[in-house]
Amino acid sequence: MHLIKTLEGFGSPIKFDGEKSKFWTGNSSSPIIKLDNALVDKPKQKITNIFALIRGTEQPERQIIIGNHRDAWCWGASSPNSGTAVMLEVARLFGEMMSFGWRPLRTILFANWDAGEYNRVGSTYVPTPHMLSHYEADIYM
Questions:
Q1: How does pLDDT run across 68-104, given as a tens digit for each residue?
Q2: What is the pTM of this model?
């Protein structure tokens, strides 16, 4: 809060829903603030990505990726889990369609990323040579 109070009166007040707030935009005469962001160096932590694959019948080398991260910085149920709930329901529906003999033309990959909030570690890990490099992702949802 000290940082926000330091900017008070510099620039224009930021409006939310048409009302002035205690936040200001700052301007060229605003105080200069030096920020030292000391990161905590922790040893490597194990992450777990989860994948499910429905192989395509006509173009199996081409794929559609349906994915979502499942971690959160805070309030974990609101950020990732709404997307995970939708992804799991789509996977359930595809499984039900498969029980009636349906198969996709292209491969469908369901991906549930870990460490998505922390530097996108989980989702950037995938395109490594030993994983899915032989696929072309046409769509990512």
A1: 888 777 666 667 788 888 899 999 999 999 999 999 9
A2: 0.60
Measured between alpha carbons, how far is 133 from 141 in angstroms, rounded to an integer? 18
Residue 78 exposed, middle or buried by CB count within 10 Å (0-12, 13-18, 19+): exposed
DSSP 72-118: -SS-TTTTHHHHHHHHHHHHHHHHHHHHTT---SEEEEEEEESSSTT
Task: Give the closest residue to 115 by CA, choosing from 51, 52, 46, 66.
Answer: 46
DSSP lists the bridge partners of residue 136 as: 62
| Measured distance CA(92)–CA(111) in Å, rounded | 14
61, 107 in Cβ contact below 8 A? yes
> Does residue 64 contact residue 139 with C-beta atoms inside 8 Å?
yes
Residue 110 and residue 87 in contact, taking contact as beta carbons nearer than 8 Å: yes
Residue type, 8: E
Evaluate if residue 118 carries a pLDDT over 80.
no
Nearest to 50 by CA among 131, 120, 112: 112
More confident residue, 56 or 22: 56
